[in-house]
Specification:
single chain; mainly alpha; 8 helices; globular
Length: 210
């Protein structure tokens, strides 16, 4: 299929997108913009988005993506609770992942991939068990890092996004593919913003000890 055919197919699919999918994508856009700005409202927007997306992905045969969205729901509730119940209600500090965080991240990715792949391969009619499992496993790790306000969350989420875009197009979900491309770009910008914040804080701390 050449580029013109891809564009034509995408446009035809886009015109057939139901209102529910538009709603899920809209709240997803709001969530990532609020996450980049480090605002607490990212969590309620995310909760609404994942509930809608879980339903849509399940009925599209993306079972691991459905489970992933349920995980997003749990992590959103956890992140919201953790933010509210801190002693200070200022935005939590953004930091870099340490060795313990990376070990947990690797365990999440490897463990989730193996478990999801085996389930999809042997207990569902999934036609894309490897890609579905990999996308979900890397995103699981990214969401855990996001809840901990670790800058590396953007890296894990973009690994997931890079594989998800062609898969979503293949499954006839062009609006979610477009959202995922948007999320990829926002994640790059989010990493740049968070890195600037961390470096600025490090400079301030260094100056205070002089």
């Amino acid at each position: 299929m050449n580029m013109q055919q891809w564009v034509q197919t995408f446009w035809e699919q886009l015109k057939a997108v139901p209102a529910l999918e538009w709603a899920g994508v809209s709240f997803g856009v709001a969530e990532v913009l609020l996450a980049r700005a480090n605002k607490i409202w990212l969590y309620p927007c995310g909760i609404i988005s994942v509930l809608i997306s879980t339903y849509i992905f399940f009925h599209s045969g993306l079972y691991a993506e459905s489970v992933l969205n349920l995980y997003y729901f749990v992590m959103s509730v956890y992140g919201w609770w953790w933010w509210i119940n801190r002693k200070s209600h200022a935005a939590p500090e953004i930091t870099r992942a340490d060795k313990k965080d990376w070990l947990t991240t690797i365990v999440i990715v490897v463990g989730a991939f193996i478990i999801l792949y085996l389930i999809l391969k042997h207990f569902t009619d999934s036609t894309v068990p490897v890609f579905d499992s990999w996308i979900s496993a890397t995103a699981w790790a990214g969401m855990w890092l996001l809840a901990k306000r670790k800058i590396e969350n953007w890296l894990l989420l973009n690994i997931s996004n890079a594989f998800a875009i062609p898969l979503l197009l293949y499954k006839g979900l062009p609006l979610y593919a477009a959202l995922t491309l948007f999320l990829f770009i926002i994640a790059v910008l989010g990493y740049i913003d968070w890195n600037r914040i961390i470096k600025q804080r490090e400079k301030e701390h260094a100056f205070s000890f002089e």
